[in-house]
Structures are given as structure tokens and as C-alpha cells.
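Sequence in, structure out.
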Amino acid sequence: MEEMDITIVFNKNKYPVHIGPQETVAALREAICRETGLPPENQRTIAFKGSNQAKLKNPDATLVDIGLKSGSSVKVFGSGGEESSAFLKAEQDALRRKELEERAKLTISKSLVERPVYVKHTFAEFQVLEKLPPGAPGPDEAMELLKKLAKDDGILAIMAKHEWKVGLLSEFAPSMETGIVGVTDSCLLGFNKNKGQEISLRLRTDDFQGFRHYRIIIETLLHELAHMVHSDHDANFHALNRQLNKEYVALDWKKSTGHQVGKSKESPLQVAVESPAEMARRAALQRQEKAKQLNNWKLEDHNSNDNG
């Protein structure tokens, strides 16, 4: 089935989104979070013409199931006054993004770097986190995921078509500085430094126990590739972002003939996907503990550096 073009309407701002009809409500809420900065558990109401509110409560329901159609205008209402949050204003969005990017760079200490075999339009180097909390997938698994993204047929085709080269593809850690779902007001999913000097992605779930859904990471990567041309989130940027999402399917014959992204039997990567309800419940029960653990982890790392 062809993917749909919809418009997210939040706080009087409109955000064009390209999404597949077989994606789930959870994926839709992630897309809303990515475009507006509003975390899934704070998305009080999602409404559109013909919407089925009962089915919208099921994070695993598909967009076909809930009645969403291409061309729909999806209105989103937040809880706790998010509609008037300053970071959602267009003028402040760019400043907030730059601030989060700088903070994210600070988390990439003691990392591993690997160079791929040379290809003209590709990513020159990869960088993953080495210092990780207990239970987290290791650096080798993160490196494998970055290579999988770089070798994705749709991404390779886009890079070649637009003659893009990126110096470094890296990951940054979920933290209080870069945002935790259910704890902070916003969360950074990726950034593009100097139009291709570096693209960095949030690969891991907030609890570090797995990786985010492959499709969500791909959409974030396409979003950051659109910043190869346009720095601001203006109409030109959104048009290019929609174009790249269409090209990702059209330029890869496997995807255009029904291949499901992120479900290759060849991939042994550990993936952990949480529904919005699960994220909200976990945030309510563990936000204080999580903040304490993050602070203790940083403190222990700081002390070990001082002693070493």
C-alpha cells in the first residue's frame, strides 16, 4: 500500500508527515513527538475526520484500523498546557535544537570509531558509545546498527541521487540533557551538524535496555538528511523531508514490492519497542529513580576519571 501524506496540527502550527497506512498508533504518536516535541504520554487527544477514538487507545492498532486516510488533518491536543510551551514556537525551536545538539555532543565521550570501505556517497566514519550502564546492548551491536543504517538500500540510493556525503554517523545517549520521555518536556532524536559534518542519532531506548524501532530511526535519519539542504524547519525543509520519505521506498525495489523495513531475519539486533501507554506508565513509576540512576552513573564515571 502507498504511504500517506497527512498534516499534524498542534498549537496552531502545521507539520506535514509521510507515514505508511500499516504503521501503528504508537508509530503515529512517535511521529507527532518527532515533529512537535510533544511526548506520546502528553498527547491527550488525537482527532481527525472519521477518527475512531476507541481504537486510538490501542497502540498496536494500524492507521487503517483507526480510519486515517491520506490528506487527513490530524489535530493534537496536549495535557498540562503544552500548546503554549515556549519551545514549540517556531522562533525558539531552532535555538532549542542547537542547544540540545551541543549537549548531546558532550555525552559522546570514550566512544569507538570505525571507518567503512570507501564508497563515494556514504558515511565516512561511525562512532558509538562505549561507556554504558549495566544491561545495555554493547558497542558492537550499536556499531552493527549504524552500519545497517548506512548500508540500507533506500538510504544508499538517496545518498547517491543527491550526491551527499556525511563525515560521521554517530549515536548519542538518552539523558536528562537530551530528553527522557515522560520526564523532560522534549526529547532530541537526532541532529545534523554543519550540513553533513556529522549526523548523530538516538539509537537506544530511554532505559538503555534496547534499541528504538528501526523504522523510527530511519525516519529520523531521513529527517536529518533533509538538513543537508535546509537548516530551518520551514516549508522547503518539510517538502524535502516528504520527498526523501517517498524516495526511500521508490528507490529501493525491495521496499516498493512489499519488503518490511526492520524485519530482516538476518538481523540479530536487540530491539525494544514500548507503546505510549507503557512509556507513560514507566515514566510515572520510575522518573525519580531514573534521574537518580543517571546522576549516579555520571558521578561514578566522573570519579573513575579523576582516579584514573
